[in-house]
Design a protein that fits this description.
Helix content: 10-25%
Distance between the termini: 29 Å
CATH topology of the largest domain: Rossmann fold
Strand content: 35-45%
Number of domains: 2
Largest sheet: 7 strands, mixed
Strand order of the largest sheet: 3-2-1-4-5-11-10
Order of helices and strands: HHEHEHEEHEEEEEHEE
CATH class of the largest domain: Alpha Beta
Length: 251
Amino acid sequence: MSSAYGSYEGIVSETYDIWFSGEFFFDTNFYKRLMDEVPGTALEIGCGTGRLLLPYLAEGYEVEGVDCSKEMLSICEHKAKAKGLSPVLYDQQMQELNLPKKYKTIFVPLASFMCVTDREEAVLALQKMYAHLEEGGQVVIPLFIPPNESKQEWTVGRRGTRSDGAEIILSSVSSVQFHEQVQTKLDRYEVVKDHVLAETKFSTTKLRWYYKYEFMMMLEKTGFRDIAIYGGYDFQQMTDDQTFMIFRARK
């Protein structure tokens, strides 16, 4: 796995479904509407353990998945088998995408695109997506701009219970390189069993952010057209004070 992605193995993949379990999420209907508007096979880049992919397959949508974490893909396959599903999954990085078919929709949920921190590789990822789209197909990429400040104190972000009954406490600190447009986040996972701290593990993730017109230019230079920018998952128009953006563009 490229270091650009951080480490989505070990305790990160093991605990992912503690935070993201269930059949419906804040962005579920958003991508369904997009796939309904442009019918055809879709590709989810950064499918992880199947948060979106498996419910879509269960509803009859034709969606394939790509991820660069072997462990997350293995969990996804295990969950799919339990549901009687047979997903098409690929173990690849988005900037090295090389699949045997083209798609009508390619979407990269959450902050997955921002995990490609090298600018040249990010441009290459867009080129690979463009090459894997059918004519008239669409790409959908959410991005956000983090606060221009570092968090020096550990802040608890999530708590949950693992299948063995252990409580997992996820805390984080972060630093921001403003002019480089890179946020580095250090996560601490504390495993508590029987009220005793049994284990502590750490994971580092780097994210590169982009500004509105900067990313529009990247899409245009790649060849994308009809670029739309939404300010949320209900398709509302983006306002000047928003730091969350969803880019949608056509081939």
